[in-house]
Design goal:
Mean pLDDT: 93
Strand order of the largest sheet: 6-7-8-9-4-3-10-11
Organism: Patulibacter medicamentivorans
Keywords: Lyase, Metal-binding, Zinc
Number of strands: 11
Number of helices: 2
Radius of gyration: 14 Å
Bound molecules: zinc ion
CATH architecture: Beta Complex
GO molecular function: carbon-sulfur lyase activity; metal ion binding
Family: Belongs to the Gfa family.
Strand content: 35-45%
CATH topology: Metal Binding Protein, Guanine Nucleotide Exchange Factor, Chain A
Protein name: CENP-V/GFA domain-containing protein
Structural class: mainly beta
Number of domains: 1
CATH class: Mainly Beta
Amino acid sequence: MPKMSGHCLCGNVSYTVSADPVITAICHCDTCQRQTGSAYSLVVGVPRESLAVSGSTLASFQTTTEATGTPTQRQFCSNCGSPLATLPEALPALAIIKAGTLDDRKGLAPAVEVHCDSALAYLAEESSERQRFPADLPAG
Ligand SMILES: [Zn+2]
Ligand SMILES: [Zn+2]
């Protein structure tokens, strides 16, 4: 039994996750804003080997992670355009799932916010119980 499952808007691309999530976070980075067309991404980090993605229209767009200069694969559905998962080379043990594509997401609660330096002003001013980091999570 998968722990989590999800799919894109059109349903061509679906995935399962066989392990528990590592972290749930809000990402304010410029790339996430542009990729989603929204103010930020709500993401769930899972062990990369636990993620199985399938579907004939699975595509990937490569971006460069600013802090490390390393490539990041951003998987999406080429039929409907939904972003699904992000695979940064700098974090090889992790797959980052766009939480809006999960089948069961109502109970998700982000623990941290990252790339707060790029956050929209109205979000930057919001008081929050969450830990906020100006860029990536500190190493370790
Ligand atoms: Zn699709
Ligand atoms: Zn981001």
